[in-house]
Amino acid sequence: MRAGTIKSGHSSALFHRKELNMEKGYEMFITDLRRLLLAAMDMEEEKIYFAKKGEKYGCTGDRLFVECGDIEKSRQICGLHTEELYERYCKEHKLENIIHDCVCEIKKARENCVICDIEQLENYEKVKGKLFIRLLNADKNRDVLKDTIHHKVGDIALVLYYMAGEKDGYILSTKVKKHFLEQWEKDPDIVFEAALVNTYFISPPRIYHWEKMLFDKEYRGDNFMDILGSYHPNKGISGNCLSTEKRTNGAAAIFLPGVARRLAELLESDLYLVFTSIHEVMVHSTDKVYPEELKEVLLDTVKKATPVEDYLTSSIYRYSRRTGEFSVEVK
Questions:
Q1: Residue 1: pLDDT band by 50, 70, 90 thresholds?
Q2: The whole model's pTM is what?
Q3: Using an 8 Å Cβ cutoff, are 14 and 6 in contact?
Q4: Rg for the chain, CA atoms, rounded
């Protein structure tokens, strides 16, 4: 059974009737949201379904799922965060605007989606060259990580991703579930090591200088990893901004093979690491700054300049030049 297409006159009747009353509550909002999306997109009933937090597919919160399309064994699915949408409705009292924006997001998901071949994911030899690492806050993503391959360092999770493709310079990817590790019959450490190497070559580590970024549009950071070169990092209190060539999810650079060791050698000391977001990390010599002061700067930066979705940690980390290990210095 298909929901009828909204005609222009019919649409007016739907959206200009009395707006949803606040007392109808969250559940009624979801019911009306789903019904109007079915009508607006002329979709079959079973193509839009709801999952509460903790249920299947709803591990990151309540979501309304819309199946955008089917290609052989794969499905394109767009998840709408209903709690956020309800909060917006409570402020605006405009369901029509919410429906419009949801439809736009779903259409955008259709255009940008890259389909993953599940059978290919089951074969480690076919996918090992496309595995890479991203960082997430382990506490905020606790539910997601239960079923995802990852390593933890303090409250930072190094999460295994599969690169499905690239579009307009952006990597399209998906987290890798734990059950694939069993199918691959591979040691987790070997898989992670390979993924870290891949991450290095997908977007090599770079140190960025703010003045160069402001005045040179072609600036892509400094390659400090060239052992034949003579790179001179900032040994003062301002530190060094470490990211990657793509400058997206660049904080992972510090965990890539040889990076922390190279920086410790250049600075001739252990390292203090200040993760201002998932995209970069400030690297300081432990001989020049106090971790408690760095903590104050980090908290202020996170509060004023770091988007919620880019937050990684409020802790100051240390890298030991002697042992090669990372640890939390100040929580």
A1: very low
A2: 0.69
A3: yes
A4: 23
